[in-house]
Amino acid sequence: MKRAANLGLVVGLVILAAGCQRLSGGPNYAAPLPATPTTPVNSGALQPLDPAVPGTETATAGLDGTTPTTDGAVAAVTPPSNAQQVGRTDLLGGWKLASGADNCMAFMTLTTWSGGYRANTRGCATPVLTGISAWDLNGNQVVLKDGSGQTVAQLYSSQSGRFDGQTATGVPVSLYR
């Protein structure tokens, strides 16, 4: 009898505690985070590139590790003499990205993406760096690409934890930790 009374008391206390929690407004959840603003997508018709207009001839950067010149020809990028060998895992994680007056962050993963592996940037002001969506290795050259697979920048490892090169528009660019 005493055992049944104790069991009844414990069950009663559990029910009472559950009821109190339910009547107090439910579980205490954290407030949801605000939505992150996104850049609107230009869904209108795009104008064709005109090599006579400065800045538009570089949008045709090739996927073969070449950089276009202002006259529309393609110039090969030669590696610097101190270029170090690099593996895929050497690039994983967060990096500081600097090009011109722009200083932001780049993040690289091994998730496959069109023409390479997934990458993204945060805090970049220039559209060229904001558009980075992928990265790949071409020998010891690191190639950063946009969402359509076009080359955005080409870099070489000059020392451990640092990659230097240029964007498809010819602006110097560096990745470093």
Automatic annotation (TrEMBL):
It holds the Pfam family Inh. Residues 1-30 form the signal peptide. Transmembrane segments: none annotated. GO terms for cellular component: cell outer membrane. It is a lipid-anchor. GO terms for molecular function: endopeptidase inhibitor activity. Keywords: Cell outer membrane, Lipoprotein, Membrane, Palmitate, Signal. It comes from the Bacteria. It is found in: Cell outer membrane. The keyword Membrane applies. InterPro entries: Inh/Omp19 (IPR021140), OM_lipoprot_Omp19_bac (IPR010571), Protease_inh_B-barrel_dom (IPR016085). The keyword Protein transport does not apply. Residues 88-177 form the Alkaline proteinase inhibitor/ Outer membrane lipoprotein Omp19 domain. Belongs to the rhizobiaceae omp19 lipoprotein family. This is Protease inhibitor Inh. It comes from Roseibium alexandrii.
